[in-house]
Amino acid sequence: MDITKDFRHIKHSDIDSEKWNRCIDNAGNCRLYAYDWHLDRTAEIWDALVWGDYEYVMPLPFRRKLGIKYLYQPLYSQQLGIFPSPTPRVEKAFYNYILHNYRYSDFHGNSENLKPKDTSEIEFLPRKNYLLSLTDNYEEISSTYSKNTKRNIAKANKSQLHLIEGIRLESYLDLKLKNLPEKHGKKEFAKLKNIISYGLYKGFGQIYGVYSPENELCAAVYFCHWKNRVIYFNAVASEQGKELGGMYFLLNKFIEKNAGKNLILDLEGSMIPGVARFYSGFGAKPETYFQLKFNRLPLPLKWFKRS
Hints:
- This protein is of the alpha+beta class.
- Helix content is 34%, strand content 28%.
- Strands 1-2-3-4-5-12-6-11-10-9-8-7 form a 12-stranded mixed beta sheet, sandwiched between helices.
- The protein is globular, with a radius of gyration of 21 Å.
- The two termini are 38 Å apart.
């Protein structure tokens, strides 16, 4: 049987937004990053693979360079891949399609897109996300904090910091702009502003801010509440905020307020050891998702994209 008859490559302009978002919304592996309104704000352009009448979908964010289309992972979109969790038949069809229709791939699946046994031409490189269940009470959750985390929270509690929920977007962006890494350009900053503005407007986003004893904003986090997940979506701290332990103070206060609720705090993970230690120090547990890579570029582009 020709399984290619069961699915279609649909161009971005032809995607049925209502059916697409319904598929993502009903998927057991639903991720905020896969809704069309999020992809429209993060990807430069994206097409899709659709199985049947939007029974399974897979976003295909792509770019072109020297006339060659390749798949990439958009900034501010941790996990994409196939939704809902695919059957082996769907999985094989989708992966075979991208393998034979794109010359290069470096994008992420989601934690329920497992590594197939028979797709040797695609590398599935494990990455870590960190999740913390908030269903227990605060005393039980905080008892799992590491010694270093407890020490930093105690230090922050003595620093006369204070927390405000729902600070203004302009205050957050001003702090972010003053503390951007060198490689973070204006285009990326504009995307972040757009995403947060939308979340605040729709009511599923909120910004927490930590103020110094001098009443200056020194640390802040944009939290995004979607279904039973609260995503630690984007954080920023000034040098003073880092010195005073502002992020330890903020995250501990957030956990204390939301403990006992049927929520998962999604810390979005990191492959940077120091950041991973920060998350795990609060008792967060890692989950694995995969980075999908292959490189069939012609020389010398193949070597240029090797790293």
